[in-house]
Specification:
mainly alpha; 9 helices; 0% strand
Length: 237
């Protein structure tokens, strides 16, 4: 069973690092093309994203069952019990920043348009899309943490037991940043930094729950922004 888990782990890791970044960029480009003539394309994109992420999380669950005798050693308990206390402060900061964008003037809206331009095609525009986007955000908060922090950290510890926390954080952050290749270089860098912070919390707390909450919160904040300020990307996007 452990040998099967090892093979599947290598396949999954290879997919996340070598395939998913370019597949994600291709999917986003196809979405932009479809949206020019198919208003339902965004909803379908959300649904497929939700299904794909749950399949990935389920595969991690299968791997955990197959390698059950080693999982506890790959995920030792964290020692920093104060990490969870950061979440309320981050929540306040996210709400405050969202309020600034929502209530600010023309300059603030222009800044938001520049910031969100790389993902303009993904932003929900209708009530139905907003509801599905909320499900997608919650799914990403759970499943991407299972994949990139849960599986990623455990796989690295299994493959290289001598790696310290800085290396674990850096490697999983790079993989997470590359997964957002469709957002361009700036998006890769920003999500990589966010991934590093989430990895640090996961390692310090010994739990995925805090990072799931934070990840979902950061994605859900999109619904509080004035998205009408972000124009649909042009043909050269």
């Amino acid at each position: 069973m452990v040998a099967v888990a090892a093979v599947l782990s290598v396949v999954l890791a290879g997919w996340l690092v070598l395939v998913q970044p370019w597949r994600g960029r291709q999917r986003y480009r196809r979405l932009l093309e479809r949206l020019r003539h198919d208003p339902s394309a965004r909803l379908e994109h959300y649904r497929r994203g939700i299904a794909f992420e749950w399949v990935g999380a389920a595969l991690v669950g299968v791997l955990a069952v197959l390698a059950h005798s080693r999982v506890r050693s790959l995920w030792p308990p964290g020692t920093d019990t104060s990490v969870g206390k950061q979440i309320p402060g981050i929540l306040v900061a996210v709400v405050a920043i969202t309020a600034v964008y929502r209530l600010g003037g023309a300059a603030t809206r222009r800044a938001l348009a520049v910031q969100l331009r790389p993902v303009a095609g993904l932003l929900p525009r209708t009530a139905a899309e907003r509801r599905m986007f909320a499900l997608l955000a919650l799914t990403a908060g759970i499943c991407e943490e299972v994949l990139y922090r849960g599986f990623g950290l455990a796989a690295l510890r299994w493959a290289a037991p001598g790696l310290g926390h800085p290396a674990l954080i850096a490697l999983t952050a790079v993989a997470f940043g590359l997964a957002h290749l469709y957002q361009g270089p700036a998006g890769v860098a920003l999500t990589g930094l966010a991934g590093a912070y989430l990895a640090w919390i996961a390692l310090a707390s010994g739990s995925l729950v805090p990072v799931m909450v934070l990840h979902a919160l950061l994605d859900l904040r999109i619904l509080g922004l004035p998205l009408d300020a972000v124009p649909f990307p042009g043909p050269d996007a």
